[in-house]
Structure formats: structure tokens, C-alpha cells
Amino acid sequence: MDDIVHGAGREILADPSSPRDPEVMPIRKIGVIGAGQMGSGIAHVVALSGYDVVMNDLDKERVEAALAAINNNMTRQVASGKISEEDRQKALARISVTDTFAGFADADLVIEAATEEETVKRKIFVALCPFLKPDAIVATNTSSISITRLAASTDRPERFIGLHFMNPAPVMELVEMIRGIATEDVTFGRARDFIESLGKTTAVSEDFPAFMVNRILLPMINEAVYTLYEGVGSVDAIDTAMRLGAHHPMGPLQLADFIGLDTCLSIMQVLYEGLADSKYRPCPLLVKYVEAGWLGRKTKRGFYDYRGEKPMPTR
Ligand code: CAA
Question: Could you confirm whether 72 is annotated as catalytic?
Fold first, then answer.
């Protein structure tokens, strides 16, 4: 690994639980499971910060697409002067791919960013753990599922943590950190130092359904879908209203397409079931779009149709 380029050039604060303790192994190599939007964004930011990264996905084509997207996004960053061409080349050279979890044997931290389904994540953790070093930390990028429950499917609940990156990970400043019931302070300290070394700011959430950002954001998006469903406004009117009337960088329906409508629905279901409150019921129109396979940008159709030159509202 090269010297770590601290993304925001920020000093890491001393803390009793911090791995500044020489007994604690530094984090150098990062595994990323899942090469979708989040996995590729995380690999991007981690490699640019000087860490070696090894990526894995069941689908080889998705890995190829992720590497192309990382290259493309880094090229945009070079064009806008955010990074140098040398940074781009060095970061890309730090990213490797593994077909099997055996490729994570020397990883200090593995971040799971697979699909937002608990059974899928649990299967991954059961298969992954036997290959890991005893002191390796396992993190999940889940946006809603209980960290304590996911930790229970690993052999190391004390070295398990929620690290919730926002999309697009290379741009968004925040990472939510969530401890499970068994997460040790030293794990939390190591993870927090790692996140800060990426130039990100952390916000600590308790382990409740959808944590903080999505507990607030997703009901707003779901309400926007109800606003559409009840005919209060068109897709364009709702998004224009929130972009210009509330200064949101994206309208809520545009943002839903960006996040993925399947992910939005999963998060609403976790809120609805986890908090047992009817105010979180997913809008039937959101369910219908997901059933149609109109999942947003990734399938080229959602509340907008992305198949032409310009996104066109579908309602
Ligand atoms: N990688 C690297 N850089 C990227 C990027 C990526 N994937 N996507 C955008 N950028 C950069 C662009 O290169 C551009 O940089 P410059 O200003 O230096 O040229 C900058 O970001 C702005 O991008 P664009 O000009 O393409 O577009 P924009 O101004 O509309 O910004 C946006 C795009 C940053 C995504 C902005 O629209 C935005 O902030 N949207 C809201 C995103 C948001 O709310 N995310 C949270 C979603 S919720 C979540 O993630 C939690 C969950 O679990 C569901």
C-alpha cells in the first residue's frame, strides 16, 4: 500500500478506543463484496485514499462494469481538477478482483455492499468468515437492516459494524456508523479512523430500522410517490417543487430512481415491519414499479425513462 492520502487532509483525533495503540494492526487492505453502485463507489473512494482494494461479485459482467464506471468517474474528477492523472492511475492500479472469498484472506476490513436483502447478506457472511484473518473487521453497507442481527450470522460479532456510505460514495461527505450490540470499542475506533482517513465525516446512529438518514429520507420519497399516486402532481411538478421549493439537489422521484426503486421499497418494508407503524406503509405505486422491473436508472426506466437522450417522466 502507498502512503495513505488522507482525503480531507484532516488530523485524526486521539481517542482511548482508537487503534493508535501499536498493538492494534493498521487497516491497509480492504475487501469489497458487491460491484453495484455502492460497491463500486466505495472501491473508488477507498483506492483514491491509498488503500489496496479487492472486489468480488457473483456476476463477472457487473465487476467489469464497475471497473469501467470507476475509471469513468475518476476521469471526470481529473477533468474537473479534483485529482491528478497520476492519482487516477495509481488508484486504478490498487484495485484487484477476486472470484472467491479466498481472495480476502489478507484483507484487514471487508465491506459488504451486496443487494439489500437480509438472506443474501447472511449467506455471504457465513461463506466469507472462514477465509478471513482472525482480527479482520467485517462491515456492512446495509442501509436499513439490523446490524446486531447481521452480526449474529458471522463468527465475529465483536468485530462487526455498520458503515453506511451514501450514493454517490465518491461525492457524498457522510458515512453513518452503527454498532451492533456486541461491537467492541476497538472495532468502532478502527472503523472510525478508517472512515476519517477517506476524508468523510461520520454520524453515529443507534441500531434501529433504517438508522438516521433513511429513516428520514425514505418516508419523504414514499410520500412523493403517494403525491404522484393520488394525482396531486405529475412527476415533473413534484420534482420541480422540491428542487426549487426546498433546494434539494434532486427531486424526490429523481432521487428514488437514482437510489433504485427496489432498494427504496426494501427500506420502506424494513421501516414498516421493524417499527410496526402504518405511517411507513410503502405506496402501492412504488410496489407496482418494482413488480414491473422498472427500478430506476439501473434498468433505464422508473419514474423517468432514461432510454432516450433526455430523461422523460413516465407519468
Ligand atoms: N463519482 C465521482 N464523482 C461524481 C460522481 C461519481 N459517481 N457522480 C457525480 N460526481 C461529481 C461530478 O464529477 C461533478 O464534479 P465537478 O463539480 O467537479 O464537475 C459533481 O459530482 C457534480 O456532478 P454533476 O455535475 O454530474 O451533477 P450534479 O451537480 O447534479 O450533482 C449529485 C450530482 C452529486 C449526485 C447531486 O445531484 C446530489 O447531491 N444529489 C443528491 C444525492 C443524494 O441525496 N444522495 C443520497 C442518497 S440516499 C443514500 O445514498 C442512502 C441510501 O442508503 C439509499
Answer: no
Q: Of the residues 175, 205, 235, which one is the last residue of a structural domain?
A: 205
- Assess contact for 304 and 312: CB atoms under 8 A: yes
pTM above 0.90, yes or no: yes
Helix residue ranges per DSSP H, the chain: 37-48, 60-79, 85-93, 118-128, 147-151, 185-197, 213-229, 235-245, 252-259, 261-275, 284-291
Render pLDDT for 6-53 as a digit per residue (tens, 0 to 9): 443 333 333 333 445 546 678 999 999 999 999 999 999 999 999 999
Shared-domain flag, residues 104 and 158 = yes
Query: Which residues, including other chains, have CB under 8 Å from residue 296's CB and lie 6 or more apart?
Result: 256, 257, 258, 259, 260, 261, 302, 303
Protein residue with its CA nearest to atom 26 in ligand 1: 76
Domain interval for residue 193:
4-205
CA 257 to chain centre: 16
Residue of 44, 76, 221 to test ligand 1 pocket, by largest number of atoms within 8 Å of CB:
76
Residue 73 annotated in active site: no
pLDDT, tens digit (0-9, with 9 covering 90-100), for 271-307? 999 999 999 999 999 999 999 999 999 999 999 999 9
Domain end position, chosen among 205, 236, 252: 205
Residue 170 CB less than 6 A away from ligand 1:
yes
| Number of separate domains in the chain | 2
